[in-house]
Amino acid sequence: MSTELEAAVSVLLKERAERTGLQSLTPHEIVRELDKHVVGQHAAKRSVAIALRNRWRRMQVEGKLREEIMPNNIILIGPTGVGKTEISRRLAKLTGAPFIKVEATKYTEVGYVGRDVESMVRDLVDQSVSMVRNEMMKTVEGKAKEAAEERILDILLPPTEPRQQAGFGFSFGTPTISRPGTNGNGHEPEPEDPTKDSADSRTRERLKAKLTSGELEEREIEIEITHVPTVASMQIMGPMGGGMDDISQNISDALSNVLPKRKKTRRVNVKEARTIFQQEEAAKLIDQDAVAKEAIERAQNSGIIFIDEIDKVAGKSKEGGGPDVSREGVQRDLLPIVEGTTVATRQGPVSTDHILFIASGAFHVSKPSDLIPELQGRFPIRVELQSLTEEDFVMILTQTENALIKQYVELLKTEGVEITFTDDSIIAIAKIAYEVNESVENIGARRLHTILTTLLEDILFDVPDLIKEKQISITADTVNERLSSIVRNRDLSRYIL
Questions:
Q1: CA–CA separation, 404 and 408 (whole Å)
Q2: 127 and 146, same structural domain?
Q3: E strand or H helix at 68
Q4: 3-class secondary structure per residue, 196-225
Q5: Whole domain around residue 72: which residue ranges?
Q6: How far apart are CA 317 and CA 224, in angstroms?
Q7: Which of 359, 384, 409 lies at the terminal end of a domain, its last residue?
Q8: How many distinct structural domains can be found in the chain?
Q9: Integer distance in angstroms from the first to the last C-alpha of the chain?
């Protein structure tokens, strides 16, 4: 990578850190941003905001003490659909930090079929690599676009003469010895025609102007792309199956690098060719070693791993064997990852000492105290999220940035229909959602999806063919007429709502 490009990448990363990094977000600002997407749960928001700010504070500490300051890992306790996952996901988007969500139930202890818990760290690094690569590709976007357009021009207007190597009297192909004053065939060279070069140059400039203005976007051309042979991934089963998926991926990568790359011809339009060429040229300009270094740094110091359903690996009793043995094994395998260890990845060794772990679970059957004591100690902050009330449902339907009401309004707008919900209809929907959660199963805000889908089912089905009205109003009477009979019948509520 050139010095100029290195400087550009450095400036971009610095600007991004100043714009979206932790230093620009105070705990109050973090909570305000989370309020746009998650209703209520202020205790949980305060806890994650403090944990996030503490990471920035640690980076400002000088000397050896910085490495001794551990992150405040958090356990979020509460029923499904109250915002546990959404808080963590929005937190990662807010800070631009590498983030992955994993299910604790898909891991098993070593010796059982399943994934190795270390794979969550590898997944986090892969996510970090993707983020850094996309950012660096933006820094070389201009140069990559120019190079892509030159390649398209070479296809639209192929060179009339074979290119010659500087300092030699032969073109690519069969070499021929030349004598001074002769061409490659031993004959006197024909005089160059300057008018021909000038005409080709003018034609190329005209084509370039049309290409830049977008006049040639739909013109079809034949392009050659490099086809990297893929190696079928190997599923290794048996006693060591838990950790072999990453080994098989490394073997596949190694074989892909060894096997010869083939050229493949495709017929595409200019617009698609520009995209393909631009990606290829950008990849050439990026220093992969710099990408890996920056990705590991981010994963180690700002990565967030969200472990969902951790209550499912908490043993319900100390007696007996069977699945409880495997559950405790998962906890013991999680312990060194959360405690701090070094995991080997394709990009290099990664330390988990300062990765922030956020675990969550409903804990209906088990309790946080059912986790092994060592793991409990690694999640010192426990926050209980509250069940949603009718008022919360009203706010979720109307005030969040991605509110369900707004989503359905935009969906029907594509059919040329304007749908409106009166205030009393929104209150009626919220009331029904609360009642069904209380009487059947509490699935939190997800209940609103089932209720709105059932309420609008006929409209969504009939709009393209049967409904000619351009304006539809949903009132409280509409809601009660469509849903009241289902709510009164407990069995219907269980199966429909």
A1: 6
A2: no
A3: helix 65-68
A4: HHHHHHHHHHHHHHHHHHCCCCCCEEEEEE
A5: 3-137+288-384
A6: 63
A7: 384
A8: 3
A9: 58
Domain C-terminal end among 285, 302, 317: 285
pLDDT computed for residue 238 by the predictor = 41
Model pLDDT, residue 19: 41
What is the Cα–Cα distance from 491 to 497, expressed in whole angstroms? 10
Tokens 């140069």, residue located: 143
> Residue 467 forms beta bridges with which residues?
none
* Residue whose tokens read 């201009």: 142
**Full-model pTM:** 0.73
Q: How far apart are CA 238 and CA 358, in angstroms?
A: 31
Same domain as 130, residue 20:
yes
How many whole angstroms separate alpha carbon 86 and alpha carbon 94?
12
Alpha carbon of 449 to those of 34, 85, 219, 397, 497: distances in Å? 21, 17, 45, 10, 9
CA dist 177 and 22 (Å) reads 66
**DSSP per-residue letters across 311-380:** GGGS-S-SS--THHHHHHHHHHHHHHHHH--EEEETTEEEE-TT-EEEEEE--SSS-GGGS-HHHHHT--
Mean pLDDT by 10 residues, the chain (497 residues): 51 47 74 88 90 86 86 89 85 83 77 72 92 87 84 77 44 44 53 62 79 78 68 44 52 60 76 83 86 91 90 66 64 89 91 92 86 90 89 90 90 90 93 88 87 90 81 91 81 72
User: What is residue 90's predicted lDDT score, i.e. its pLDDT?
Assistant: 86
Quick one: pLDDT at residue 128? 92
What single letter denotes the amino acid at residue 104? Answer: A
